[in-house]
Amino acid sequence: MDDAGSNHSLASSSEKQQAEDLQGTKTSQCSVTTVYKAYIAGGARIVTVVWSKTLISHSLSVVIDLKPWRPFWSKKGLKSLELENHRVDVYWDLRSARFSSRPEPAGGYYVALVCDEVVALLLGDSKKEAFKRTKARPSLADATLISRRENVFGRRSFSTRARFGDLKREHEIVVENSISGMAEPEMWISIDGDVVVHVDNLRWKFRGNETVAVERTPVQIFWDVHGWLFGAAVGLGHAVFIFKPSPPETTEASGEDDRQPAAAVVSSSMAPEFCFVLNAWKLE
């Protein structure tokens, strides 16, 4: 087993800086980052959409192939940039957006990326309004959702909702822990109210994976809670959970060979498949 202070912990220098910033501001900023592959300006592009929420505001950011727009603070607008001699426009209308406790709207909005009079990426449920405003036609090649990453904050319980790739509906995900106190720490992961993963003796099993069935589809669940257990000394307190709806290579975690940091799963050189990443920041 790795030593608690080894360099195999999940935290990178950027994550350490993020933790320091969070502690310095004492403001819990929840965020959701979705990554899409879309056909824009004559080629396949990576589009990253970030929804952020603080106690007082929401914001939206869009990045295309590392070319960012500044965050969109107004409820309706249009911004443009040049991409390889092509103009790319992003239209958004959040005036009727319905927000809950999560960073991204639950409905009543649209965000549309338009290039060469084609809507390359369309988010939200107000699609009719988006096409009317942009005066553009739908793309012949649908954008593909590659990954989704969410930051949530809590003490003993962390919850969110997510759709696993092409599966039909959203599912409620709850991660609970009993790290505080004198008892041996444990962890539970529930999907739609059913406990699908229970890890006892968490100090010895802080990294691992199991496979569960969701809508009759195998979903691999990877966890890395090193930061919860051993991160306090270096200013970190977050864990990473990855939900990957793909055929498993192994049926269960067994032995130290399976205890690789969860970040290694995301950066795998395998063919791209959808994964949902949950960063659970533990507040003291």
TrEMBL record:
Region feature Disordered, mapped onto this chain: 1-24
One Pfam family of this chain: DUF868
Superkingdom assignment: Eukaryota
Composition bias, Polar residues: 1-16
InterPro entries associated with the record: DUF868_pln
UniProt name for this protein: Uncharacterized protein
Organism lineage string: Eukaryota, Viridiplantae, Streptophyta, Embryophyta, Tracheophyta
